[in-house]
């Protein structure tokens, strides 16, 4: 854990604080996270350490306590962005989306950003005009401070549905954040989290037009994670100079193969948002299209960060004990392959079989068949970890289950499906379905 | 439990036998199911007693042991049907369906049936030409015995996927069944079961053209249950005289509002089938359309039996502790309402919330929003057990959670959703998602 930490994180007896407790304890005692068994109890067994991420020129991070819940931790994140920062976004397709998503979608179209505010502990969804007024208040408060347009202030909220964001707490929290000392990526990643069990960040660099540009991303999400849109709250910051329209094109394209290809529980949140901010401080000639020098390198680096962030969310899937990669080939199209992959990744029977380390390929067949996509039972092949269990619609006569059983004991599981009809291919990622998911979601009281 | 029982049911250490053990024990000791705690351990807490169902003229039931698994119980059910019996069927939409489904779909179009054979313990799905040959062998064997066309012999199989039905065991099992003494409905209902924890039957009567006609149905199903088709294996027998085309019309219509409105786990089986057989022995003038006297009464009685059977499957949902009825109104169409209802009923977060007796209406909002159907966040109302928690997009200011909390402690849960846009309505049924589902499906080895 890093040392600078602008507000104390104290243990509390609610769900958010419970899952955050390993940060709390490590802060108080200054011990190492990985050397205290008691701290690790609630952390996902698939967690990865937070990477060492550099500052991005033009981005200043601050966190504060708004006290949206009685949890004694920072829950308001503020990112100040240099003048001239371009923005792009992808948002949930859930039609019962929050005011933050409605407003953010309009703001992203304008392409300009000066600040981001993220509230944790209250999603402000399904709160009607009162919720919208709270968001507009935050936008006005920050715009007044920065002397910018309210539309350049982006707001996200995550947490319980149906309770309007308290305007007094938001106002005091924003004021505290504007006064706070700058902090690092991990502090921001921790502060945007709710039920997350570890802080999630990813970075990449690319050489664009002779300049080395850097991308840093943070993300939160653990349950209510489903595909077909940008899920969760994720933010990517880069010092590259990128025109807003091209930034949007790159983000949308990356989204299709990353955030839209993960699922934890098939449930699509009302608030999910991924925003990309480009401050332009790296000094490259602004990227305007794929004809711009270095545009390919930038797009690849952005997609790489998005893929890393998407994987981190799956690794923190509620109750997850195994990270599952489903590779579908031979479908009639890439989109058909993605839908088949998601039918497999969302199947409770497939997910519980993998939790039980059972190479139950019959359940994979079932999931392929229910996907509503072209498939031919007698051309279908299924494998685990690179070993085929069934080919062309029949169980393999000489199928050796031993290496498959060994593979399924691991934490990184591969499921391969060849539809046998065409050239369409896709890879999707999910986690297994365990008692942990039931415990977390049946015990959680709204 | 009824006394006649043509083959002993002995306890075995596999999954099917474990869940059947209460029948086993009750048979050996001739005790009452409801008065022995130890017998009830594995029975669904939502189970209903098997109804007292009369014989249907023209239907003779027999059961035998084919030994598809090493479980020492009857696993082959044979129903002989009088000459002139009409048949109709609805089948799974899973494109990786079994040979039984492929053949049954063709046979049902011909409208004539003389026999039904149901194999339990092996679904014969994903077994290619070898699976198909096993089915054709059974059809030929029975047709030879009855001097009828093979197409008049319907075969269903349920159990593990990917293992061809052993032809020698099938042949000996059919021969034993043809020799066996007739049995009753409960014996047949038990014998078609696999992971079911209780035997499921339903009946109805109607007066048609001056004749009292009777319908008796049996069904099996517990997991891999999802809507949008006929799910599970279900059979309805009636002594009414009904033309095949009209029988199909009535069954398809009943299916839309019953079997297509239930879900346990969103996973659609490869084998599911519902067949209706009409022997014509009741003496009514054959029903040919809704213009025939008594046709409405017959259709209503058939729909009633289908609804009862569908509910029984939900009551035996894997791990179920609560029976949930989701009533959607105010949608733009009935079909839209059904899709919204199923999005709610399939949501792991809604199902775990109800398992935890938590009136988490925010998760219901989320599920409405992800359904892909027209909805307006600010017109949406959500209630539990007849008490509104939110109206017109806002939490109720005077919401009293006490009666809702009390309602959620029960075993029969109502969730009401008013979309506020139109006149479309639908009711769907599901069960909660508990640790039991995980235990059953993560511990089960294929």
Q: What can be said about this structure in brief?
A:
The structure is a homodimer of 446-residue chains. The first copy, chain A, has 446 residues and is of the alpha+beta class.
* Overall form of chain A: globular
The CATH topology of the largest domain in chain A is what? L-amino peptidase D-ALA esterase/amidase
Radius of gyration from the alpha-carbon trace of chain A, in angstroms: 22 Å
Instruction: Point out poorly predicted stretches of chain A.
Output: 1-41, 227-231
Main sheet: strands, sense, barrel of chain A: 6 strands, mixed
Mean pLDDT of chain A, rounded to whole units?
83
Q: Count of DSSP helices of chain A? A: 14
The number of domains of chain A is 2
Strand order of the main beta sheet of chain A, please? Answer: 13-12-11-14-10-15
Distance between the termini of chain A: 31 Å
- Helix and strand sequence of chain A: HHHEEEHEHEHHEEEHEHEHHHEEEHEEH
């Amino acid at each position: 854990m890093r040392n600078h930490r602008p507000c104390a994180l104290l243990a509390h007896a609610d769900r958010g604080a419970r899952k955050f407790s390993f940060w709390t304890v490590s802060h108080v005692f200054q011990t190492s996270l990985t050397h205290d068994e008691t701290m690790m109890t609630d952390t996902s067994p698939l967690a990865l350490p937070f990477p060492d991420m550099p500052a991005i020129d033009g981005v200043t991070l601050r966190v504060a306590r708004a006290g949206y819940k009685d949890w004694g931790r920072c829950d308001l994140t503020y990112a100040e962005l240099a003048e001239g920062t371009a923005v792009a976004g992808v948002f949930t397709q859930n039609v019962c989306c929050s005011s933050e998503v409605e407003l953010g979608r309009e703001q992203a179209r304008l392409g300009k950003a000066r600040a981001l505010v993220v509230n944790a502990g209250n999603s402000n969804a399904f709160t009607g005009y009162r919720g919208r007024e709270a968001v507009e208040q935050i936008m006005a408060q920050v715009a007044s401070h920065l002397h910018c347009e309210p539309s350049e202030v982006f707001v996200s909220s995550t947490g319980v549905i149906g309770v309007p964001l308290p305007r007094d707490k938001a106002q005091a929290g924003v004021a505290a954040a504007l006064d706070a000392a700058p902090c690092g990526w991990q502090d921001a990643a921790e502060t945007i989290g709710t039920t997350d069990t570890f802080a999630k960040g990813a970075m990449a660099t690319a050489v664009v037009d002779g300049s080395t540009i850097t991308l840093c991303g943070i993300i939160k999400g653990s349950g209510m994670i489903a595909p077909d849109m940008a899920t969760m709250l994720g933010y990517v910051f880069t010092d590259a100079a990128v025109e807003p329209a091209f930034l949007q094109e790159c983000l949308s394209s990356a989204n299709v193969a990353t955030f839209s290809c993960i699922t934890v529980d098939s449930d699509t949140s009302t608030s999910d948002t991924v925003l990309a901010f480009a401050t332009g401080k790296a000094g490259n000639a602004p990227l305007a299209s794929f004809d711009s020098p270095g545009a390919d390198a930038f797009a690849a680096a952005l997609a790489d960060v998005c893929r890393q962030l998407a994987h981190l969310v799956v690794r923190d899937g509620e109750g997850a004990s195994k990270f599952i990669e489903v590779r579908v080939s031979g479908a009639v199209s890439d989109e058909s392959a993605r839908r088949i992959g998601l039918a497999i990744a969302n199947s409770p029977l497939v997910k519980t079989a993998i939790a039980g380390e059972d190479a139950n390929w019959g359940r994979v067949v079932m999931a392929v068949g229910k996907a509503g996509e072209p498939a031919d039972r007698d051309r279908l092949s299924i494998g685990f970890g690179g070993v085929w269990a069934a080919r062309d619609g029949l169980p393999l006569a000489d199928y050796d289950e031993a290496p498959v059983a060994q593979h399924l004991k691991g934490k990184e599981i591969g499921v391969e499906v060849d539809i046998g009809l065409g050239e369409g291919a896709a890879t999707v990622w999910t986690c297994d379905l365990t008692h942990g998911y039931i415990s977390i979601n049946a015990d959680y009281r709204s």
